Predict the structure.
Amino acid sequence: MTEAELLRSCHTIFPGHRPRRPAEMYAAMAAWCERHDADHDVYGSGALIQSFEDKIARLLGCEAAVFCVTGTMAQVTALRLGADDHGSRLVALHPTSHIFVHERSNYQLLGHFDALQAGDRHRPWGVADLEAIPDRLGAVGLEIPMREIGGQLSSWEELEAIKAHCRARGVHLHMDGARLWEAQAGYGRSAAEIAAGFDSVYVSLYKGIGGLGGAMLAGSRDFVARAAEWFRREGGNVIHRSPYVVAAAMQFDERLAAMPDYFRRTVFLYEALKAHPEIKVNPAAPQANMLHLHLPVSRERAIAIRNELAAEHGTWMYNRVAHNALPQSSLVEIYVGDNLVGMDDDALRGALDRFAAKLKHAV
């Protein structure tokens, strides 16, 4: 079987939310549209999309928000405009920024801005990481939480100091909030409180929300209007955004309401993992509803173990497996969503026991 077929054969899935196949997803979208008498937008103009943009803006404490077909487009556009406004093409980013790790040098090849790595790739930012930069910055991009280091957050005190630092120096502060909704539980604060002091905020409509794709970019009305014009220039002016908006809107409130449960379940998973010291967990304590597990086996063996557990026990432990810094080690991510929230405690512990036994046998 392919990996996709193997996953579909499993009755117990650890990461994320229960996947919905296209027919089920589209049926749910159609039913939602019937209940809400929804119409298509036309190039972003229409009651459905504009009301959802307004809703996101209010949640973030911003004047306005605009839909963008991808977060990749939203982020580089926001940083480009912010840097231009502040008279410097230089943008500071954490070494694990999505822009560096996953976007194939788009900021550089497309001439958006010049990027500078700041801070330690294994630690979240503190204000000292920015204070150490002697150059005049146009913009700073900060991911909340930092996905590539296990969903870690800068402390609240450091975050406030970073905001003050950028404000005092006239630097545009942009938030990569792909998982901002998840960070609310870790900080114990609302999205608007976290976003206060940022000049622009990007949020995803599919990662924790479970939509088909798409993003929102929020900020001042003037900034958002200029960003929308740049999205058109960059090829993001699709005629109907409604499928993306409906897929997110129909489950948005439910997902946000569940975030505290996801975080509590992450804490439970973290405690359960203590019974298996061969699995090293990052961060040292949960800060969002995700954990990174460092495994004492190669990437190839970790994939084989996952597939064996799926075939033998109907349990899917994780998705992507990455090489780790040390030889014969690997890294996997567990995003805690509906699957783990709905799993029986004993079933969760039993799956971890079987997983750990496979790891021990492989070492």
Remarks:
- The longest strand covers residues 172-177.
- Residues 242-273 form the longest helix (32 residues).
- DSSP finds 15 helices and 13 strands in the chain.
- The mean pLDDT is 97.
